[in-house]
Amino acid sequence: MPLAKPQRAYGHARLAVKPVNGRTRIATLYQEGCAKIRLPDRDDASLEAVLINTSGGLTGGDEMRWQIDALNNCHAQVTTQACERIYKASAGVADVTTNLSVGENASLSWLPQETILFEQSALKRTLTINLAATSRALIVEPVVFGRKAMGEDVQTCLFRDRWRVYRQEKLVHAEDFAIGPDTASMLVRPALLGGMRTMVTILLLDSDSERYLERARKIIGEKGGASVWSGKLLARLVDDDAYSLRKRLIPLIDLLNEKAGVPKVWSI
């Protein structure tokens, strides 16, 4: 008798926000499967959304779909309740798709906590961002290849990360990161992590990005770098563990996210 096909996790959630009397409020909210969105109170006029995967992690064949739309004149930031864990995949690849859109004179900060890749995990991730002419976006994506404090060593995994950013339907930023399956031999290469196990990519899309550059470089230090061109600031940081990375990442988010700062659910 053939074995039953393993059950896979599926989640799909959409959130759109609109301005109401000078504050950012829900326009539409949809949740399906293991994808949930919670909205904690804030002291200012902006909105904070917390994404939750109630399955507790992802493995091969799981799917997550997120869509966030910040309409004109809205100010919002999106984070996750906890780190997203990508577990060993017996078959298939975990697939995560995120679509963000930001309207005129609106700002959106995408600030998920770390994605943790475990031994023999497999993840394909796609991030698509559509910006209006006067919108602002801050994108932060930290990744951990095994937790040092837990004695985890990732020798083999598969990770594919694809970003596409459009402003007024014109492509303004594109990048693809691919590593694995022989992850250990690739992580030690100087052009990748140089033997480190954590990394983060930060992308700020703002016509005034250049004013942050020197302060950002002081925060980043020697384990990373930052550049500015064509209305965007791109920074990459690496470190030996997530705790050490956060000690630089949190002040960098404080700088680039201005008054909104770091989401409430983050801790160090």
Summarize the structure in short.
It is built from three helices and 17 strands. It is mainly beta. It has one domain.
Q: Can you describe what's shown?
A:
The protein is mainly beta. It has one domain (10-260). 10% of the residues lie in helices and 48% in strands. The chain has 3 helices and 17 strands. The chain has helices spanning 183-187, 213-220, 242-256, and strands at residues 10-20, 23-33, 35-38, 47-53, 63-70, 75-80, 84-86, 94-102, 107-111, 115-117, 122-131, 136-145, 158-167, 170-179, 198-205, 224-229, 232-239. The strands form 2 sheets. Strands 3, 4, 6, 7, 9, 10, 12, 15, 16 and 17 form a 10-stranded mixed beta sheet that branches. A 7-stranded mixed beta sheet has the order 2-1-5-8-11-13-14. Helix 2 (213-220) packs antiparallel against helix 3. It is globular, with a radius of gyration of 18 Å. It starts with 9 loop residues before the first strand and ends in a 12-residue tail after the last helix. 42% of the residues are buried. The model has no long low-confidence stretch (mean pLDDT 92).
